[in-house]
Every structure is written in structure tokens, then in C-alpha cells.
Amino acid sequence: MTKLVQLVFSGVAIGALYGLVALGFVVIYRASHVVNFAHGSFLLLGTYLTYGFHQEIGIAFFPALGLAALAAGAAGLVVERLALRRMVGQPVFAVIMMTIGLAVVIDALVVWKWGAGRLSVGDPWGVSAFRLGGDAGIRVAAGAVLAAYALFCRFTALGITMRATASDQEAAVASGIDVGRVHAVCWAIAAAVGTVAGVLLASGPRGIDPTLSAVALAAFPALVLGGVDSPAGAVVGGIVLGLVEVLTAGYLPGLLPGRLGANVHTVVPYLVLLGVLLLRPSGMFGDREQARL
Questions:
Q1: What is the pLDDT of residues 109-156, one digit of tens each?
Q2: Contacts 24+ apart (CB under 8 A), 164-173
Q3: What stretches of 61-209 show up as alpha helix (H) in DSSP?
Q4: pTM for this entry
Q5: % pLDDT > 70, the chain
Q6: d(Cα 89, Cα 86) in Å, to the nearest integer?
Q7: Rounded to whole angstroms, how far apart are CA atoms 65 and 47?
């Protein structure tokens, strides 16, 4: 029973991080219907900026994290203004290739500035390992960010504007909403949220290196499970993904010893994803598209 409780707590902690990463995808998709494959690179950039502000300049950790989130958000806003806005009206494939190109450029700039070796961003909230006590900081921090985003969308004028744009862009334009401004803000928010997720992932023994950007691909099943246009779905999908991954790693090798590889837990979430897509292609909380014939 103790093992099960520990695995569940660790699964929820990892799932909360997956949910944070997936939320960045959702924020941009809801506004512009673009899947941002550069999201992992913005996460990486924000994490390295935190390292730079904290370890290189000497700013206290939490102010450094705040500055890094603002800087990454500004980078997201600039990229949307200078690159993505010029792609409005272009085929979806072209926009996706643009985001992939941005990812390559950002990753290269990060390696050029900080190198490819592993660095430490510190461990201010005691995330020494994914265990019953050590991952409490992850759950609290991730939950605080998710709650702050929910309150922002519900009670601020800009958040309500973002929800209106996500619901119906044509109606939003007709109502006088500056849709371009909303898109830019969404890119900034996604990059800032990604920064927090990246720093949480890099805290403690894991550290930071250029491979951290791959966590966006690991969180992609959470995005699809919950629904690509649902913030709540991103959270639920992330927690489901985390629980499935941790419980599989904890129990399946013992049930089938010698028959499965050590990394089978990385495959099982994708099997769950395939099952959900067969039953509900829009995800658990995604809106089903309807077309009149």
C-alpha cells in the first residue's frame, strides 16, 4: 500500500508538469489553431534564462525565475509579431514548418550561449527526487500556476477577450477585438508557463541540458488525451499520463519479469492515447467539430 501511495503521489507530480507543458500548447491552439512545435524550445530558453539570471548574474532564485518568464514571454511575443503573423492565411503545413524551424534556431542559440553540458538551476523548493515528500513542491507550484491561469482567464478583461477569441474569431473581430494582439499575448503566456514547467523539471538532480526541450514531445499525449482546445483537458490528460507512466514503471516489470524492456513505461501512455483516439478523436474534453452538409 505504501508503494502504491508513493507511486500515485509521484504520478500526480509528474502529471502536473505534463499538464503545465500541455497547457502551453492549448493556449496557442485555442487562439490561432496552430500546434506550436517550438514550445519545447521556448521552455528550454526560459529555463536557461533562469539559470543565467540566478547562477551567472547572482539574482535570487524566484526573482530570477520571474525575470526569465517575462523574458521568454517577450521572446514569444516578438516571434509571433515578426514571424507567425506573416503566416496568417498560409496552409497549416507551412505554419507548422515555421514553428519547427523556430525550434531549431532557438535550440542552436541556447547551445551556442550555454553549451551542451548539464548545468544546475538549484533546488529552492526541495525537489530532491520524485518521492512522497520531495515532489510536494512540484505539485504546489504546478497547481499554483494552473490556478493562476484559470483565474486570469475568468476574471480579467484580457482573459475574457482570449476566451471570446478562442470561441469564435470572426465574432471577436466583428466585436472590435484585436485578434492579432490576443495571438501575441497567447504566445507570451505559453512561453512564460513553459519556463515555469522547465525550471520545475530541471530542479534538483535532473539539471538542465539541451535535451530538456524533448519534454514537450513527452507531454504531447497529455494534450491529445485531454483535447487540444481544452485547458482543463490538458491538466487532466497530464495527470492521467503521469499516473499511467509511473504505475507502469512501478508494477509492470514485476508482473512480467524478463519479458519487457526497462523503458516500457514510456510506451504505455501512447497505447492509452491510441485507445482514447479510437473512442473519442477530439480527446476527453475537446470540442467535436460539426459540419453541415
A1: 999 999 988 998 876 765 554 444 446 667 777 778 888 888 888 888
A2: 165/31, 166/30, 166/31, 166/229
A3: 61-82, 92-114, 136-155, 157-167, 169-174, 179-202
A4: 0.85
A5: 87
A6: 9
A7: 8
